[in-house]
Every structure is written in structure tokens, then in C-alpha cells.
Specification:
The protein is an alpha/beta fold. The protein has one domain: P-loop containing nucleotide triphosphate hydrolases (Rossmann fold), CATH 3.40.50. It contains eleven helices and seven strands. Helix 1 runs parallel beside helix 2. The radius of gyration is 18 Å and the shape is globular. The mean pLDDT is 92.
Length: 253
């Protein structure tokens, strides 16, 4: 199962959602891979901490080798690194990933990630974190995915942007990947006592959008988890926020 976590808007919790769901997957005994396609490298740092600067081989190196002829190109497994957590591996990003964007797009390398991931049969689950834009890397992720999760924070600007996002996903389904489905909208930073948050969620439901039942509330524990570079299931397994992620994972499964 390959899930893409995508939103064209930044700051909605893509890295938090993808990393914590993947960590829960691994904690339940599923061999899990995280692919970080965001040049900001937040997911990579979340899982590896300062060690991310010491890794040899990343997603940029994988794509760079596709731009020139090589007699024996490296398999994607050579760019994947284990984390300190059982069953959880990472294909890290690189801040210079954006430098390759135009070259990859010009040479039509859109299916390279799909073809590489299809060769992997050792993983039960793959989570792909994407940049906050509908670009080559996001489209590459959507081309190889079974489903798309959309993190959503409760404000009107996010709600308006949601419709063009879903159109882009549906267009990708029609043109590139007919198995792709929108698995659901993950309401993040939810404040159940705030009238505005409730009204926006109600508006999404009235529009018959696939809002997932389990929502993620706002908590300082998430920032602490980021600072410690430890996903919630390992950092604070009994915390309310962790339990919300566990409920979300169970809903998806």
C-alpha cells in the first residue's frame, strides 16, 4: 500500500501526518518505508535527526542518476536508510532536490519513482511526503500511489484551496494512475470548541467531501516531538495526541 500525503498549502502538517502514521505502522510490525520528496527535509530530520547530514545517498542522488546513461545504475534500495526504529526505513530528501526539477521534467522522468518502488516487495506500507506544491515531485508520487491523504487545517483559505487540490488529484487519476484514490481529508490542528473550526468541517461534509472521522487536535506535544526527532508513538505513547493518531491509523486500515 503506497500512500501519498499531499497538500499544495504549506504548514498543514504533511510531515507530521506522514511520519507519525508510518511510525505507527512500523510499531505494529509492518515493514514500512517513508519517502521524503520535500526539499525542506522536515520528514528526514524528524526521523534521523542530525544524522540526516551524514547519510550517503538520498532521493536527489536517485533522480540524478536517471539523467545520464549508466551501465549499472544503482537500485533504489541503495538510497534507503534504516532508522533507529524497528521496521521503519527512510529514503531521505535533499535541500538541493529542487535544482533537478526542470531537468527531470524536460526529460519526462515522471514514472521513474513508480518503476523503482514497484520493484520493492519487502515493504508492507509506503508513505510519501510531498512538497507544498503541485509539481514534478508531487505528480511523480501520485503516479505511483494507491491513495492520497490530504492534511487540512481549519481555515477558510485552506478550504478554498482544497477544491483545486482535489481537481489536480482527480486529473492525475484520469491521465496517469487509474488506481489512485483520495483516501480522505485529515483535519489537523482541530479545535472542537472553536465555532469556526466546526463550521468549516461541517461545510466540507455538506459538500460531500471525504473528511475522515478521526481528527488531530492542536497540541504543543507535536512540537516537542519534532524537537526531539522522535515520532509520537515512541516519544509519548500514552498522550492524547498519540491516541488520536492511533485512531486515525485504525480508521485508515
Amino acid at each position: 500500500m503506497i500512500r501519498v500525503v499531499f497538500n499544495q498549502k504549506g504548514g498543514v502538517g504533511k510531515s507530521s501526518v506522514s511520519t507519525n502514521l508510518a511510525a505507527i505502522s512500523a510499531s505494529k510490525g509492518l515493514k514500512t518505508l517513508v519517502v521524503d520528496l520535500d526539499p525542506q527535509c522536515n520528514t528526514s530530520h524528524y526521523l534521523l535527526g542530525d544524522q540526516v547530514n551524514e547519510t550517503e545517498g538520498d532521493i536527489r542522488d536517485f533522480y540524478e542518476q536517471t539523467l545520464s546513461f549508466q551501465v549499472r545504475p544503482k537500485e533504489i534500495t541503495e538510497f534507503i536508510h534504516p532508522t533507529e526504529y524497528d521496521n521503519l526505513d527512510l529514503l531521505p530528501s535533499n535541500p538541493e532536490l529542487g535544482d533537478l526539477h526542470a531537468k527531470l521534467e524536460a526529460k519526462h522522468k515522471i514514472y521513474k519513482l513508480r518503476d523503482a518502488l514497484q520493484k520493492l516487495d519487502q515493504y508492507d506500507a509506503v508513505y510519501i511526503d510531498t512538497p507544498p506544491a503541485f509539481n514534478f515531485y508531487t505528480l511523480s508520487a501520485l503516479c505511483c500511489a494507491d491513495s492520497c491523504l490530504i492534511p487540512f487545517d481549519c481555515d477558510e483559505f485552506s478550504r478554498q484551496a482544497l477544491y483545486s487540490l482535489m481537481y489536480n488529484v482527480q486529473e492525475t487519476q484520469q491521465d496517469h494512475n487509474d488506481k489512485l484514490q483520495i483516501e480522505g481529508i485529515v483535519v489537523n490542528q482541530f479545535q472542537p470548541r472553536a465555532k469556526a473550526s466546526r463550521m468549516i468541517v461541517e461545510a466540507l461534509l455538506e459538500d460531500d467531501l471525504p473528511v475522515l472521522e478521526n481528527k488531530i487536535s492542536s497540541s504543543v506535544k507535536m512540537k516537542e516531538s519534532h524537537n526531539e526527532c522522535r515520532p509520537l508513538i515512541y516519544f509519548a505513547p500514552k498522550h492524547k495526541l498519540t491516541q488520536e493518531y492511533l485512531a486515525l491509523f485504525d480508521e485508515l486500515v
